């Protein structure tokens, strides 16, 4: 009887130890989406950043992510998508999509961020946007025409659908190859987020090569 009690105690201790080890295992810094989202450019590894001009964390991320984007290899496609959760999020998102459609230089994107974050401009009215952007060399009439165009309305729908499929709840959030989602907080910081992106890009590259062989 004594031996049975000791054996039971050892089994219980062993099970408790396994449970404790599992509880102590660090959580993955990213979430793997149950339903992967198709990438914009087939054949390339996609890295998406979802952002909002009104987000101070997104603004602080700019000087970190921009140099990284400039050095991305040719098999990686970087895409910025505005998160549109209503109100100013929608207005700013539509402004970004309009500027992107117009082929505005990246310096205009930076100027908009500075105006909202540093100069405290709201830029939620399209006429205010057009007036400000005119100071950055953007044609006012063309901006207003593009802003209300059918093409931009289609891009808005697409951006909202993607954010829903990515299951994002905040910004800045990054998505690698339509499969892996993470943010600066879960990664441990801005630099760590980009390191994680590099790791996941490498993982996807290796998986592609393995599938080809």
Automatic annotation (TrEMBL):
Extent of the signal sequence: 1-22
GO-annotated cellular components: periplasmic space
Tell me which CDD domains the record gives: DsbA_DsbA
- Compartmental location: Periplasm
Residue ranges of every copy of the Thioredoxin domain listed in the record: 14-152
Keyword Protein biosynthesis among record annotations: no
Asked if Cytoplasm is a keyword of the record, the answer is no
Coiled coil ranges (UniProt) are: none
Which cysteine-cysteine pairs are annotated as disulfide bonds in the entry?
55-58
Which GO molecular-function terms appear in the entry? disulfide oxidoreductase activity
List the keywords (alphabetical): Disulfide bond, Periplasm, Redox-active center, Signal
- Which family is it part of? Belongs to the thioredoxin family. DsbA subfamily.
Q: What is this protein called?
A: Thiol:disulfide interchange protein
Query: Which species is this UniProt entry from?
Result: Pseudomonas khorasanensis
